[in-house]
Amino acid sequence: MADPAELYEAILTGNARKAEEVTKAALAAGADPSELLSKYMIPAMDEVGRLFEANEYFVPELLIAARAMKGALEILRPKLVESGAKPVGKVVIGTVRGDLHDIGKNLVAAMLEGGGFEVIDLGVDVSPEKFVEAVKDKGAQIIAMSALLTTTMPGMRATVEAVEQAGLKGAVKVMVGGAPVTQRYADEIGADGFSDNASGAVRVARELVGTGK
Questions:
Q1: Residue 174: pLDDT above 70?
Q2: What is the CA angle 186-188-191, rounded to 5?
Q3: Which one, of 95, 38, 92, 77, lies nearest residue 205 by Cα?
Q4: Burial grade of 7 (CB within 10 A; 0-12, 13-18, 19 or more)
Q5: Which of 15, 35, 61, 204 has its CA 20 to 30 A from that of 7?
Q6: Cα-atom radius of gyration of the chain, to the nearest Å?
């Protein structure tokens, strides 16, 4: 039988095939799906984030680790649902209206999933109304918005305003990121959180839902 501890190493090194094999073998042997997630998978992605921030990992390593995590999580998710396990929180994520860039957004979504969040990915060119509607439908605690163009950044302000108009301010937190976005701009528009990288986004999201670092 595969050692579940190998799951940590497989995700850390981005070995997607190994991560899936170990997950399947562990579940077949009766492993607790919540324990696989909390003891091996989330810590592995946390370490990936730490290595990235220490400049020991770069975007390619983040991407392959996130892919390995995602593959294992797809196998695990039905078992987690069956066991009644709850995610750390729910995040609605998307690239703002008028912006069709999704690489950064996809990486943040993968890292958030790796951090134990349920992620509802709305894709690109997402209107403020669509963000608000998704929050209401899914009961999300966080809206995560990305923009790669300075010309689409006003969509972030419009979404913050739409959240307020919908009476959701306080009930849902808004975090922003993307190449042209700064902490100053996040403060200006009234966003609750900002990160300039994917691993930092996980830390900010945890703080916003009150689960700490």
A1: yes
A2: 40
A3: 92
A4: buried
A5: 204
A6: 17
